[in-house]
């Protein structure tokens, strides 16, 4: 779990200036909650989705 936090945080830090919106696929449960915390503290528009269709809808809207 700690590795997920480190990787998600690092990814968000590196991409937040260049990528205004992003979708995460394939994460569940506690990892979704941890991602929400990272998104909140870094003030970015990143979300987790269950399906690729939902993610594509989010990033293309």
Any overview of this molecule?
This protein is an alpha+beta fold and 61 residues long. It has a domain at 19-60. The protein has three helices and two strands, in the order αβαβα. It has helices at residues 2-15, 30-42, 52-60, and strands at 21-25, 45-49. It has a two-stranded parallel ribbon.
Short recap of the structure:
This protein has 61 residues and is of the alpha+beta class. It has helices at 2-15, 30-42, 52-60; strands at residues 21-25, 45-49. It has a domain at 19-60.
Please describe the structure with a list of short key phrases separated by commas or semicolons.
59% helix; globular; 61 residues; two-stranded parallel ribbon
Give the topology.
Blueprint: H1 2-15, E1 21-25, H2 30-42, E2 45-49, H3 52-60
Helix pairs in contact: 1-2
Structural class: alpha+beta
- Kindly estimate the percentage of residues that lie in beta strands according to DSSP: 15-25%
Strand count, sense and barrel status of the largest sheet are:
2 strands, parallel
Number of strands: 2
How does the overall form come out from the CA principal axes? globular
Separate helix tally: 3
Give helix and strand order, one letter per element, not per position: HEHEH
- Uncertain runs are none
Spatial strand sequence of the major β-sheet: 1-2
- Mean pLDDT across residues: 90
The termini sit apart by 31 Å
